[in-house]
Every structure is written in C-alpha cells, then in structure tokens.
C-alpha cells in the first residue's frame, strides 16, 4: 500500500489574520475555498505547498467539534493529516484495520469516484487521520478536496518548496506511533530518539508532548528555497523562534534548505 500526504489541515480562531501570516511568511497563495465544510460549522481556505496543500479551517458557529478542539488544545494548532491511498481497495483495507483496532470512523463519504474516510482524533490520539481515494490515482495532480484541478497556476515554490515531515506528539509517543502503524500498515522506525513512519513523500515523527498542550499535530518540516525571506517575514509578524523554526497558527514550522 502506498500512502501520500496530500494535505495538512490547521484550525484557527480567525481566518484572515492566519492566512495573512501564512502567505506573507511562506510565500504561498490561496487556491480554493470549499463551501462543503459549512455543514460542519466551518469555513476554510486551501493553499498549495508544492503539489500538496495546506488548509486552514475556522469555526463559524458555537458548539462545533472544531471549536471544542480549539478549547481542548488551548488555541490554534494542527488538526488533520489528510492522505491519498493508491487504490480504493487499499483505502478500504486501512479503514478495516482501523475498525479492527477499535478506532472510530468520524466521517466518511462514498461518492463513487471519490471516497473519504476520516478517523477519530481521540482514537488516533494526536489528530484526525483522513485517507482518501479518487479515480484519477494521481499523487501530483487531481485532488478533490482542492476542487480537483485548476489550482496549478497558484503553485509557488520560490520561497517554500514542499512538505518533508509531520510531527505528532503525545505523552506516550510509543503508543502513538504504534496506533498509526496499525492503521497505515507501515513499520515504525527509530531515528535516534525519534520514532518515524515513512509515507510515500514524508516522514511522520512521533515525539513526547512537552509544550503543555497535550496530544496534537505540533509541527511540520518544510523544504524551503528562501530561508531569508521566511525569517524576515516571520520576524516582522512576531512568528520568529530561531533561524531553524517559525511558529504560525500554533504549529512549529521547521525549515530545511
């Protein structure tokens, strides 16, 4: 089974200021707004990171699951790891492994040419894991959550090139890694003190939660083309941490040339 990270979803209290930070610091552009998230009491915007995507969702009404998640984690942060499987059979096999291991399906939709399966963040411990499939089976092109095609002219890679990794945290990173391994059917590898699972295009890193925010999607590794631009813009916007890290929307962005 091949699994490609296609999209990271962040959740925030305020959309415009979050998008202003992301576009200014990382040199990326909005490409799609999905009115379909309104059924969950949310609004969103997607931005391409290479051939993949960064999504920001914001609750638009009281009593939403997204709003409760913001309260639980004490503010803005990572929300969903959204992947694409290389076939519907493999996507459904991952769904069955989740069920077999007591992991709840939070939401799913079978649209004949596109199938969505979201796994519950409580059971996945750190975040939602969504594994989708569509009939095109193109890891670099068609992506239905971004409207299919039509986003290619919004891709900018002169500042930020692509995702390299996702950092997931919990009090027990071993249990966290094992849970994600059971669903993805991919082995846990040790890299020094870190535990990793390698997807097709990124590594999932599992670390101990030490920031006081509990389990969550705490960080992203980015391949960057213009570190100086990122650091200058992050300093101007109060997001600079070090020459290797900037913090935006409650997420640690680690910079790799």
Shape: globular
Q: Work out the radius of gyration.
A: 17 Å
Strand order of the largest sheet: 9-10-11-8-12-15-14-13
User: Main sheet?
Assistant: 8 strands, mixed
In round numbers, the mean pLDDT is 96
Q: Roughly how much helix do the residues carry, as a percent range?
A: 10-25%
Count up the domains: 2
CATH class of the largest domain equals: Alpha Beta
Order of helices and strands: EHEEHEHEEHEEHEEEEHEEE
Q: State the fourth-level CATH superfamily of the largest domain.
A: 2,3-Dihydroxybiphenyl 1,2-Dioxygenase, domain 1
Overall strand count: 15
Q: From the helix content, strand content and strand pairing, which structural class follows?
A: alpha+beta
Q: What are the low-pLDDT stretches, counting only 5+ consecutive residues below 50?
A: none
CATH architectural type of the largest domain = Roll
Q: What is the beta-strand fraction?
A: 35-45%
Distance between the termini: 30 Å
CATH topology grouping of the largest domain:
2,3-Dihydroxybiphenyl 1,2-Dioxygenase, domain 1
């Amino acid at each position: 089974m091949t699994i490609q990270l296609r999209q990271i979803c962040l959740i925030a209290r305020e959309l415009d200021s979050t998008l202003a930070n992301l576009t200014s610091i990382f040199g990326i552009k909005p490409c799609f707004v999905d009115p379909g998230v309104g059924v969950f009491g949310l609004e969103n915007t997607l931005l391409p990171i290479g051939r993949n995507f960064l999504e920001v969702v914001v609750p638009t009404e009281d009593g939403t699951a997204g709003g409760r998640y913001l309260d639980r984690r004490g503010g803005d942060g990572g929300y969903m790891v959204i992947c694409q499987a290389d076939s519907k059979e493999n996507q459904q096999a991952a769904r069955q492994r989740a069920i077999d291991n007591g992991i709840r399906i939070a939401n799913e939709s079978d649209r004949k040419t596109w199938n969505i399966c979201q796994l519950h963040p409580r059971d996945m411990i750190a975040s939602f894991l969504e594994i989708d499939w569509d009939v095109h089976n193109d890891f670099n092109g068609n992506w239905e959550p971004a409207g299919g095609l039509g986003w290619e002219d919004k891709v900018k890679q002169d500042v930020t090139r692509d995702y390299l990794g996702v950092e997931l945290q919990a009090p027990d990173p071993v249990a966290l890694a094992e849970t994600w391994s059971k669903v993805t059917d991919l082995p846990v590898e040790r890299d020094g003190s870190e535990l990793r699972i390698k997807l097709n295009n990124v590594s999932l890193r599992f670390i101990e939660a030490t920031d006081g925010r509990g389990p969550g999607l705490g960080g992203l590794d980015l391949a960057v083309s213009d570190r100086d631009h990122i650091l200058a813009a992050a300093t101007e916007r109060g997001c600079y941490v070090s020459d290797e890290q900037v913090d935006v929307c409650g997420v640690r962005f680690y910079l790799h040339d």
